[in-house]
Amino acid sequence: MVIMPRSVVEVEAQLQQLEFVLRKAGLWSMQQPSLEALQSAAPFACDKMPFEHWLQFIFIPQLTIYLRSDKPLPNTMGLYPMGEQCFSESSSRELVLPVLAQIDKIFNQ
User: Fold this and answer.
1) What number of other Cβ atoms are within 10 A of residue 109's Cβ?
2) Looking at the 3D structure of the chain, how many domains does it have?
3) What does the alpha-carbon distance between residue 13 and residue 84 come to, in Å, rounded to a whole number?
């Protein structure tokens, strides 16, 4: 049995918060990326889509699948540094970065 230092409820709450702030910041897309973009092997699919699309179309759905199937969750997370780089000039910085920091904190306990 794999022991996870975080609760499913805590992770689900942060995923909901991430969706909320992405929507509030105007970063939530109504158009799905191409199949090619979704299959990118680059970290955060940075070669095929903006970071916010990776969060929306890859990160949130994959983590949700893990939560619902009782698969072991990652032991560490490093979203904040990528978010800091991607949102450095964005007005959404104040909305999105605290949520990314909290997600990292949950997984890096």
Assistant:
1) 9
2) 1
3) 22
Does residue 82 fall inside a structural domain? yes
Residue 80 CA to residue 101 CA, distance in Å, equals: 5
Q: Please, are residues 5 and 105 in contact by the beta-carbon 8 Å criterion?
A: no
d(CA 36, CA 101): 29
pLDDT (tens, 9 = 90+) of the chain, 109 residues, equals 344 446 788 899 999 999 999 999 999 999 999 999 999 999 999 999 999 999 999 999 999 998 889 788 888 899 999 999 999 888 889 999 999 999 999 988 7
Closest CA to 34 of 57, 51, 55: 57
Per this entry, what is the length of the chain? 109
What does pTM read for this prediction?
A: 0.90
